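TODO from last week: model Flagellum-specific ATP synthase.
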Amino acid sequence: MKTSSFKARLSAAIAALGEFEPIQLEGRIVGVSGLTVEVVGLSNQLAVGDRIDLQTRSGQSTVAEIVGFRGGIAQAMAYSSAEGIGPGSVARARLNAPGNVLAVDDGWIGRVIDPLGHPADGRGALPRGPRPLPVRRAPPSATQRARMGPRTDLGVRVLNAFATCRKGQRMGLFAGSGVGKSTLLSMFARHADCDVVVLALVGERGREVREFLEDDLGAAGLARSVVVVATSDSPPLMRREAAYAAMTVAEHFRDQGKNVLMLMDSVTRFCLALREIGLSTGQPPATRGYPPSVFSELPGLLERAGPGYDSPGGIGYITALFTVLVEGDDHNEPVADAVRGILDGHVILDRRIGEMGRYPAVDVLRSLSRAVPGCNSAEENALTRQARALLGLHGEVADLVRLGAYRPGSDARVDEAIALAPKIEAMLAQERGEGATIEGSFTQLRMILGEPATPAT
């Protein structure tokens, strides 16, 4: 009897609580300067990273994020246009809605989404996963995360042979504009050996997004991909969030023990978004106009890629390839220099090679994978060293040969380079729709160099 009475009172209490209006914390906008909106009345209830709703003069609501505090005034930036927001407009704190989280679901594969987890492909609502994941999270513990796995096939001959990649490795693709970065990424998405592809298009030209999805990525590539898009006209918060959202999606699949290929184009536009945010909040410009926070936030993103922890489904990996748009083809500019020091290798795309008609326009002599010694056999490493030496020697004497200043037979090694280097260059050329395997890449290189094939064991 007592138990029944207690349950009845509890039910009545719950019903009574449901009749109360939920508490709403409101502040007021007191200033708008550039990209920053200043809010009073909420400073004691908010922290950096919290999201709020800003009411426009037309009655519409736009989502914003707290990016700093100054003199007791909260500084926010909107995820969309700030048009219609002015002094006196209402700012509401989001008390019951989760903040920077994504409810990632396996059903997101094959879909195109925006950085806030909304569908961007016109194919209806996205399924919501049962466990929302924070968009900002620390990388796996350096001493407890797994080591890199065995080598993985990227589907591109020049990288398979000369910059072989391992599962969980992070590589940078460095190039100026118009040298073929996007096409190379689409080749990875189509042909690489992986379970899931997560593609982040950060600051991409809006006109080119659909062309990239339909022509470069294609139906086959999209069918195993999750694409996160923030175009160049998006506010800086959206461009920044695209990188974090894509990494969160990749971590969801990695934690299931899957082999994830993470492609981001580009880290440079991510850093430009961070620069806009930092300068708008009053941070001092430092190296080439980048505030110091850019170079502290950058490794926090890049280090999240790589091997995960042991899980019931096995060890999962995020094999990541980040493009870096070098300004004026200067490979020592601040972003390129910082990224190169964090990642596990770099691939240089050279405009001169592309102008000569060889794509992918990878400069073999300037590209490096730090994982090569531990994943290729001694015979394969010897092959690539020999090929690099021939390509380097051919580059040194190419002008002499063109001018007719070199007489064949003067140097046997030079004669070998003149004969074999063009064949190696021809092997490195690859059409966008053509796949390649690691074994096939080394077989072709072995045939060119005249080495006997190693018997299968």
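Done. The mean pLDDT is 89.
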